[in-house]
Amino acid sequence: MAALPLVPEFERIDLVYKTLDKTPFGVAVFVPKSILKPDHEKSYPVLVHFHGGALVMGTNPELPWLSKWIFQLALTTPAIFVSPAYRLVPDATGGQTLDDVQDFWGWLHASFPKELQAKFPHLAPDLTRIAAVGESAGGFLSIQSALLFNEDAQIKAILAAYPAMYPDIASYNQRPAEVDPGADAVVSEYLAKVRGDGVKPTVRVSSPWPELQDVLEAMGKTGRHRELLGDDERLTLGYALRKAGKMPPIWVIQGSEDFLVPKVSTDEMVARIKETHPETPVHYTVVPGGDHGFDNANGLDDEWVKKGVEFVRQYWS
């Protein structure tokens, strides 16, 4: 619940960046109230946030799970905080999720300034100063945005927490030698429900916690996340690194004891980024004892956060 006390410091509006099968894909926009006065007429940097949830669950944004330091960063910069919805697996494929992310970036540059100014005429987003931030799956989408879509996105800095959920990193979500049959059945039953023969596809863009927690936990126990994501090569780190041009500076955050995205997976991701893009500034923070989501209550005053934010602000705000 760390981020909730900060919410009154922002004005929230909700926009739509696309519609599919009559389902709106929402964008939650949080504007610091400190910049709402007309005498503050100027442009402000944009902090784009992708929510976590293994691409299986979550909503935009999942406020109780949004780390305190992220909202504090938007508040103190000040920056316009923008959080889009996207299709969730396994109802969709991971490739379809990436399609949504690409569409969002197109909308941000083509339509967001006008839609924001319809509500706040004196405000303008500075789309030359965009940072992408996310936790877990959201960190993954922030990185993939920069690697796959940065010609459209124009991201200046990436902030990614425990993000290394790549199908081509062997240590991530391995299938155990002995699989819990009950957990396997939970995954199989849900797949049959949403992807089975004769099932009409549905568009699911929001499952706030604890919806589908049982499916997410079963996926973790059985090592079936790769299966749920699908086989689109854009989901892999190798393809994305090959496709990327110049990569923006990146701050990676990882807990040493993460049980969902192990440190060894993120170590490999960081090493491969440094190998293929040696010119990219990388700040890698490993917090001893940190588990998945460990940073929920951390703020800008925490020393490791302070150092990471100083790194990011060199390139962004």
TrEMBL record:
InterPro entries listed in its UniProt record: AB_hydrolase_3, AB_hydrolase_fold, Carboxylest/Gibb_receptor
Molecular functions (GO terms): hydrolase activity
Alpha/beta hydrolase fold-3 domain span: 47-294
Pfam families in the cross-refs: Abhydrolase_3
Keywords: Hydrolase
Domain of life per record: Eukaryota
Name of the protein described by the UniProt record: Alpha/Beta hydrolase protein
